[in-house]
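Bench notes, afternoon.
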Amino acid sequence: LLPFPYPPPFLLLVTPFSLLPYMWGFLAWVAVTLAIYLVVARRAVDVSYALAHPAVLMNGMIGQNGFLTAAIFTGGVTQLRQRPLFAGAILGLLVIKPQLALLLPVAVIAARLWPAIAGAIATSATLLLVSLILFGPGVFTGFLEMLPLYSELMRQDKWPWNEFISVFAFLRYFGVDQTVALTVHAVIAAAAAVLTWVAWSRDWDGQVPILAAATLLIPPYLLTYDALLMIIPMGYWLRQQPRPYLVGALWVLCFLPIAHYFNLYRGPNTVPLAAILTLGVIGARMWSSRSTATPNVDHAHLV
């Protein structure tokens, strides 16, 4: 068995389900988080497509947290421009999985959406305080003491590399040296962060899908079920910039790692390729159009 790799506020979410018998708690968790995902996903994609993402199957089968984290991320980033304080309060819930929030400060600062920072701090601080009161300081100490174990497991190649959706894991699958793999990962992550900054500082039309795809390229430690964030760029091309062939390519790249669990695929995890493809296509289109059209900057948020 593996230790519980989530910050103490995550206990606030799972504890109520643990009061039920195991199978009923499992089914209730999947049903509730799936319902939340379907309600929120409408902001990014038509509901008829929300269940079509391959990671939906994996999250439903093993009861992972992808439905919940995708809902939090989608609900927050799609409202950052219009309702920054409220959106920030939603995104503050990502304190339960902070590696999905690493690029949010880049986007918020680039767009100068200062109320979003206040909202995020308020929510995350409240969850941390409540979890401290309810569960005590021991859970925080245990969490911090456990973290090095995960980096050690990765350093010693104790994980199947095709279960991770990072560039680092993709290269390690092919036996690339750890230092080289981490360096390449860092370079691509830095490029994704720069593109995110440019997109949000200039209010590009594709800034939300850019943020979603770039987020998956930042931490070395993300698993296949986290790929549900790719529903945002897929929805972008289905609703705003119809490109079914591109959506099909992203779907296949997100499906192959799922097929691995059914012994239908034995190659590397291809989700980082989907994220890189997304950034390349949107970034190239936005960059080429900036010389012929003035960016639609929301000056109300730049004051």
